[in-house]
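Milestone M4 deliverable, item 7.
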Amino acid sequence: MSGPAFPRGATPVARLEDLSDLEAAAILMLRICCDAAAGRPAPTRFRRGGPEAAAYEAVAALVSAAVAGARRPLARHAVECACVGADESALARMVASAAEGEREEAMLLATLIARPEHGPEVARLAERAGLELRRLALRLRRGGETVH
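Output delivered:
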């Protein structure tokens, strides 16, 4: 009998195009933050200030807290992958719930990712990340900043 095809938490549960814009952005930013933590520099636009940098910093703080308090190592897919893993999906839903003011839902999802004593902090950081991602999306929609 062979082991699982994917590490725990990495099993694909969706595709990025199936998610809301906020959830997809949270996952992409999560992947970029994890790459940066592993030594791959983040794109320049996330390091030069403005709403992109604020969103990046908020997601980086969330990822740092989630990893520090994780029940087990968090799994993720590569930045360019269209699949969404189970851990990524839980994190994205937590960010979206927190940004929508659904604090109890965000807290429940936080405890799936992190140990219970870390749940409140992770949920609080998810709200900040979600609001920064929303702010960035609004600015980009209004044409306030060139992305490419």
